[in-house]
Amino acid sequence: MLTTTVSQLKVLLQSVPRSFLALNPNDLVQPRMEGKWSRLQILGHLCDSALHNVSRFVQMQHQTEPLSITPYHQDQWVESQQYISAPTEEVLNLWISLNQSVIRVLSSMPETGESPTCILPDGSVVTMEWLAQDYVQHLKHHLQQIFGEHHNLGTE
Asked: Are 21 and 95 in contact (CB under 8 A)?
């Protein structure tokens, strides 16, 4: 299952940068609607998500007990990181680099044996495979916000 997730991430690492750089630079920094993030801020949020998740994936591999997942305050992260005024290529390169780390960590997991688990804030216990798939689904959801519902990111 992790191999499918890793494959999807690799495809996204090929398609997203080209598609993102093809967008109108003015459209990247304009909020999509009043009170919503801009496309650049959404990509920044995806950087924060990758940062938190790669940490979770590493911790899950090295703990004997299930890792307790704690949520983070995404609006505070996006604001503190100042993605709205950060250079586009810097945010894009950060997204690429962090997802390369996610791929390395997930790729190093043995396919046999018992999968590490974590406890979600609602008390549910899930496997690393579930968390990795959820990460990719979250990523795709926000990429649809950036590119539109019908944009093909190559992972369908």
From this structure: no
